[in-house]
Amino acid sequence: MQKRTEINTALKEALKRQDKLAVSTVRLIMAAIKDRDIGAVGQGRTEGIEDSEILQLLSSMIKQRQDSSRQYSEAGRDDLAEREEGEIEIIRGFLPRQLPDAEVEDLIATIIGEVGAVGIKDMGKVMGVLKERYAGQVDMAKAGSAVKKKLA
Q1: Distance of CA 93 to CAs 45, 96, 123, 125, Å?
Q2: CATH number of the structural domain spanning residue 142
Q3: pLDDT category, 1, cuts 50, 70, 90?
Q4: Quick one: which of 34, 73, 86, 130 has the most CB atoms within 10 Å?
Q5: Which residues contact 124 (CB under 8 A, 6 or more apart)?
């Protein structure tokens, strides 16, 4: 629940600064969390989603904005691409430090050993552990291709 407090505090600060982009971005984050909370309550989890799930949500929000930014740039809409990039920076502020690629490679090797992964069919096990332990710290798309290489 620590992330929720951090996000609420960021909204208050953005409102005080009258930073329209930050206010709208943080409100989008809060709405997405609320949406996931409703789904969690439907599954019997009265507390809503956990911090690790919030980190995964933030990572997927960044990925969506990166895709949108690229599409806007290709369409010549640099104004919209810049807005998406601004939102990405704000969302990144709620994520922990990204681990360097070399460290991610070491983590993957360790996790492969832990779960006893021997082939590509075990990729899901490795990725599941990686997401659970390092949500928000690892680019899962890059990690997925690295896991695939190691297990192939």
Answers
A1: 27, 8, 30, 29
A2: 1.10.10.410
A3: low
A4: 130
A5: none
- Domain residues for the domain of 68 are 2-92
Asked if residues 117 and 123 have their Cβ atoms less than 8 Å apart, the reply is yes
pLDDT of residue 148 exceeding 70: yes
* CA angle at 6 for the pair 135 and 143, rounded to the nearest 5°: 15
Q: Give percent of the chain with pLDDT exceeding 90.
A: 46
Calpha distance 22→19 (Å, rounded): 5
Asked if the model's pLDDT at residue 105 lies above 70, the reply is: yes
Q: Identify whether residues 73 and 105 lie together within a single domain.
A: no
Residues 80 and 23 reside in one and the same domain: yes
Domain boundary among 43, 70, 92: 92
Q: Are residues 81 and 107 in the same domain?
A: no
Contact predicate 142/67, CB 8 Å: no
